[in-house]
Amino acid sequence: MRHSFVVVAFALVHGAAAQQIQDVWQTTWDRSSLIASMPPASAIAFGTPGAAAAADIQVDDTQVYQTIQGFGATLTDSSAKLLDGLKTDNSDEYWKLMDYMFSSEISLLAAQAISPPMVPIPNAALSYVRVPLGASDFSASVSTIQPATQACRINFTIDAAPAYLFSTLTDIMSVNSAVRFHLVPWSLLAWMKTPANADGGSLMRMSTITHSSLLMHVDALTGFQGKNITVFAVGIQNEPENSDTTYPSTSMPVATEAAVGEALRPLMNSAGFTENRSIQI
Ligand SMILES: *[C@@H]1O[C@H](CO)[C@@H](O)[C@H](O)[C@H]1NC(C)=O
Ligand SMILES: *[C@@H]1O[C@H](CO)[C@@H](O)[C@H](O)[C@H]1NC(C)=O
Ligand SMILES: *[C@@H]1O[C@H](CO)[C@@H](O)[C@H](O)[C@H]1NC(C)=O
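# 2-acetamido-2-deoxy-beta-D-glucopyranose complex -> structure
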């Protein structure tokens, strides 16, 4: 039998001895079961482990590692376009889907589709959404954040992004006000890169170009703020080891990315974004 991926939910309030598994959700490799509820007949109590086998996963809930900011996915332009199309065609289904994906409330509507029907299931409650800054490999067309002026301080505007991206983000905030958005470019502007192409290439090291790429990140924060979209973090570069000449991407060695990150922080601070994170991926 192939392995299935089983997610268990349990209370983290008490010590291990008091913990019990109340819910089991199963997704199988062949998609015959997708996040299916498989409640145990009675709560499963944690016990003293037996001898470790090859595939044992040992959880030590007394050991704390890094803080998790949320769980989620990237909302590409094409995802926003699909959602926006659904909103136009069938607004009720759109809002049900938005609730199902992003709301942290228990959804009785969703429960009706699941067997047994009387068990209300929580929504997916995606709480962290990465948003491509400019086009990604899932965009209907290649748009970038645009230079708005060509003075000594080049200003950038996010308005070339499709309008349905902003309305979808606003709708997500309306169903989950705690959602965290993380902006991150797939491609820098072509002229910041060598070779100068939106698809592939790497950031030029000329300081004025690098500085422009920093201003681009800061202006993106300002742009989203102007649209009342709260942005938790801005990332330097998506998949920095992946320069692909067939779609928007940029390669950025670790040292460059670290230097950009270090230079970005004071610029973000002086523009008033002291609480917004800069993230090196
Ligand atoms: C460019 O951006 C800077 C910083 O936000 C601002 O002070 C300046 O007024 C902007 N210039 C134009 C022409 O919009
Ligand atoms: C942002 O919110 C402010 C205050 O509520 C409001 O005046 C403004 O019109 C909003 N802007 C947009 C683009 O929604
Ligand atoms: C930056 O963080 C602050 C505090 O969380 C938030 O109010 C603001 O909206 C964020 N900036 C943007 C551009 O969303």
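# post-check
The pocket of 2-acetamido-2-deoxy-beta-D-glucopyranose (ligand 2) is lined by residues 227-228 (CB under 6 Å).
The chain has two domains: 5-45, 72-279.
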